[in-house]
Amino acid sequence: MTAGRFITLEGGEGAGKTTQSVLLAEALMARGVPVLRTREPGGSPGAELLRGILLGGTVDWSARAETLLHFAARAEHVAKTIQPALEAGTWVICDRFFDSTMAYQGYGQGADRGFIAEQTRLLGVAPALTLVLDVGEAVAVQRMRQRGGDADRYERLDAAFHDRVRRGFREIAAAAPERCVLLDASGDIQAVHTAIMTAVWTRLGPDQSTDRPGLHQPQT
Ligand code: Z5A
Predict the structure, then answer these.
(1) Would the pTM of this model clear 0.70, i.e. be above it?
(2) What's the CATH number where 163 sits?
């Protein structure tokens, strides 16, 4: 059996990650590719428990403790959800992964970036492709208003924090061009989807996936 491919979507709040992960999954499934959509923090029962603590709690964690809570949730998610799916030949599309810890805890909250890089290395799993969706603050704020709902612990942080996070994602993408594609996500939903499909086909398409009929040309 061929191992599945691991794709992550990253970016600040309101960048459109959830919207685009649904469209990407639908496009791949329409071509006969088995797909699992998942998210972080969360994605397995234990990790979802930690998500409640991280997003909803009132504890003012030290940056290192918060980093380790995200990696604890991630280790559980990888062991219980991601790794088994990849081994079964399923493509995994994950809304946020380790780049979010570097951007939010490292760049945003000032946690030691070397420590985060070491935790990332120890995790032992990396995406084949990371789509970094980039939007400016004004667009993000407007989309979050449109989405509605209560703000979580991170969404309540100030504009300077979100600016550091955005810079973090851009630097992460620039430092890992073999894995990351930085995409302007300020266009309409279909335009961003088209850019994503082009990136997926360019990086994971025909030459790399010749065993998968239907993965031969982008149709959107
Ligand atoms: N976090 C962390 O600190 N460290 C970590 O290691 C990890 C996470 C893994 C998880 O929040 C929080 O955890 C996150 C970082 C932190 N907090 N923040 N901020 P979450 O999972 O609940 O939420 P999110 O990841 O930030 O997602 P989001 O805020 O919902 O944004 P999104 O998924 O990128 O956007 P969306 O839901 O697809 O779209 C938002 C709205 O915009 C919606 O109404 C759409 O219809 C609309 N939309 C989307 N795309 C477009 C376009 N192209 N045009 C117009 N409108 C659009």
Answers:
(1) yes
(2) 3.40.50.300
